[in-house]
Amino acid sequence: MNEKVKGFLKSLVSLSDYVDLEGANASIRKNIYFRGPNVFILACAIIIASVGLNVNSIPVIIGAMLISPVMAPILGFGFSLGVRDMHLLKDSLRNFAVMVGISIFASTVYFLLTPLSLEHPTELLARTNPTIYDVLIALFGGFAGILEISRSEKGTVLSGVAIATALMPPLCTVGYGISVLNLTYVVGALYLFLINSIFIALATYVAVKYLKYPSVQETDGRKASLTGRAVTIILLLIIVPSVFSAVRIVKENNFRAHVSTVVAKNKTMGRGFIYDYTVDMSGKTPTVQLFMAGEKLTDAEKDKLYIDAEKYGITRSQIYFHEDAVNKSDDVSESEIIRGILEHSDQQVRALTDSIVRLNMRIKELTLQLAERRDSVPELPAESL
């Protein structure tokens, strides 16, 4: 029975019957080059992606990623390391540099010429803060990509890998950063692109070794050891900052969620209410600015909010009340104030409605109890009256 189970499990994960190593080898070598149509296709894809980022359109960005041939030299780089083909390695790196250069040039020109302003460039800013999650996406995307190329019956996996690993948007963001002379955008986006590229190449290298592609050159033990150490150092330099970035983002998200919960629970306090709030994450310790309207809060009312906030790890020193915010906050529009007042009124109406419902239910209960007591009391005979 154990042998049958082992045989069944082995057949599930076996790849030997489903791969075409020669076909994959030829396909990778053929597609790494950026010549002729590939150059123009790449430039068009970059412009489309830049437009999508410019107008915050996710479908347009996805379409551009499906068009772009940017993964080919990255797969070629990982493949060349796996089969120890130095000529292919040089060609892959050369074409990788060409691809990056064309992409950054095209996106920079677009953002310099576009008349569209970026008031809230959320899709662009999302490409300037890489985390360990981007490492995982690139790594498993790379595995899926090389396995798709290696198998004899091709499917649509590469399209999904192109979307998931998102190689093009960071390059577009680099171009945007150059156009507005913002070094933070440039460095953050380049870092994200390097994370994606390196871990796609790493996954390709591991898969090539696992699938036992034939090596072009004989393996030198000393050189292989030095190469392994160099790869380890590079991976650590890439991974460690992304881990810290991921931890910071998780903390920020949790803090914002906790602030939202505390504000929702304490929207109305006495005769005052919170009509708006902001979270500032720029300092060493995050802070919350609460903009109040209505009557001034008492110390007891503030203490109630402080106690609720402390349950979520938000200290008193992180909370700032702005009770004259209507006059002093330039960031708050009249419509937001009116919305806050309406929310306050709605809450009061709901509270009164709930009270009326509870009172009606209590009246019904008392009425039933009174009726039951009347039924249980025996009637006195007429002659006793």
Task: Give the key terms.
385 residues; 4-stranded mixed beta sheet; mainly alpha; 15 helices; single chain
Q: What would you say about this model in short?
A:
The protein is mainly alpha-helical. It is 70% helix and 6% strand.
What share of the residues does DSSP label as strand, in percent?
5-15%
Mean pLDDT across residues: 78
Radius of gyration: 32 Å
Please give the share of residues in helix.
55-70%
The helix count comes to 15
Name the assembly state: single chain
Distance between the termini: 94 Å
- How would you sum up the global shape? elongated
Describe the structure.
Helices cover about 70% and strands about 5% of the residues. It has helices at about 1-15, 20-30, 35-55, 60-65, 70-85, 85-115, 120-125, 130-150, 155-165, 170-180, 185-210, 220-265, 300-310, 325-330, 335-375, and strands spanning about 270, 270-280, 285-295, 320. It has a four-stranded mixed beta sheet with strand order 1-2-3-4. Strand 2 and strand 3 (about 285-295) form a beta hairpin. Helix 8 crosses helix 11, helix 8 (about 130-150) packs across helix 12 (about 220-265) and helix 10 packs antiparallel against helix 11. The longest helix has about 45 residues, at about 220-265.
